[in-house]
Amino acid sequence: MSLHCTDGYSISAIKFSSFGTPSGSCGNFQHGTCHAPNSKAVIEKKCIGKQKCSLTISDANFGMDPCPSMLKKLSVEAVCAP
């Protein structure tokens, strides 16, 4: 997963983050029945204050497998500010 802001901007907030079975699209994301509760904290720690960041999508990065044997994805909505 990669996030980046245009030149002169950095990631100032994470509005939504879910590793599991989130649904929706930008501005309208929702947690699914499977959700790693620390998803937002993991992304905030890695990305806040940076122009760009990247993270491997894996159970290890999120501290647990929120739903073994299910296909999972990561959805993130970030805010960039000067």
TrEMBL record:
Enzyme Commission numbers on file: 3.2.1.23
InterPro entries according to UniProt: Lectin_gal-bd_dom, Lectin_gal-bd_sf
Sorted UniProt keywords: Glycosidase, Hydrolase, Signal
Span of domain SUEL-type lectin: 1-81
Top EC class of this enzyme: hydrolase
GO MF, any single term: carbohydrate binding
Pfam families with a match to the protein in the record: SUEL_Lectin
Protein's UniProt keywords contain Hydrolase: yes
Catalytic activity: Hydrolysis of terminal non-reducing beta-D-galactose residues in beta-D-galactosides
Gene3D superfamilies in the cross-refs: 2.60.120.740
Similarity-based family: Belongs to the glycosyl hydrolase 35 family.
Name of the protein in its database record: beta-galactosidase
Organism: Rosa chinensis
